[in-house]
Amino acid sequence: GNEEKHKLRAHGFVYTIGILVSFWALVALLLALRAAGATLGWGFQFQSPVFLSLMAALLFFLGLSLAGQFEIGLTLTSAGGALVTENGAPKQGYAGSFFTGVLAVVVATPCTAPFMGAAIGYALAQPAAVTFAVFTALALGLAAPYVALTLQPAWTRLLPKPGVWMDILKQAISVPIFATVIWLAWVIATAYGSALVAALLACFLLLAIAGWF
């Protein structure tokens, strides 16, 4: 907050570039897979029992984390901190802001994927230009709150203070996550029978044990 305004704005711009580059890399990978003949259309993945099972297992594992059994991302954040710190202090150059944007994509997008599923599914079913535009919009949306704070540093006074409410909110979010897991298990049971559901429940048990360790 002690920086000159034009420096703050420049850091916000570089941070946004880091997010955009990361999202564009994802677009390039997805378009390459589609060009190689992979069938990527809206909702196609839900026709695969393997995808349904993996998604249910992933959400179950995420739900355990949100409920407080363990924390996800602490090690990754520490590793990424090496990119944005220098001699134990934040880097003053723009490289720190750029890699902070990259780190935001790496850490945040897996957790937000269930909420971006409709937009991503639509994008993958469209021509390359539309796919590119949708992912660019997602990237700008991810960057927008922080860019707004670099444009108006005084707005930081409006942010809620950290506290116990953050843990309570995180635990509450686990409830709809577990509800989604139940729905996916029901879809698997309806389409593929009880044997696959039994295997999925065994997988849940192993994930719970892994989370406990």
Which helices and strands, and how do they pair?
Blueprint (H helix, E strand, L loop, with lengths): L4 H31 L13 H19 L6 H11 E2 L2 E2 L3 H31 L3 H24 L12 H29 L1 H19 L1
Antiparallel strand pairs: 1-2
Biggest pleated-sheet summary: 2 strands, antiparallel
Beta-strand residue fraction = under 5%
| Topology as a string of helices (H) and strands (E) | HHHEEHHHH
Total strands = 2
Radius of gyration: 20 Å
Helix content: over 70%
Low-confidence stretches: none
Average predicted local confidence, pLDDT: 80
The DSSP helix count reads: 7
Q: Which structural category do the helix and sheet elements fall into?
A: mainly alpha
What would a concise description of this structure say?
With 213 residues, the chain is mainly α. The chain is 77% helix and 2% strand.
What would your notes on this structure say?
- 77% of the residues lie in helices and 2% in strands.
- It has seven helices and two strands.
Features:
213 residues; mainly alpha; 7 helices; 2% strand
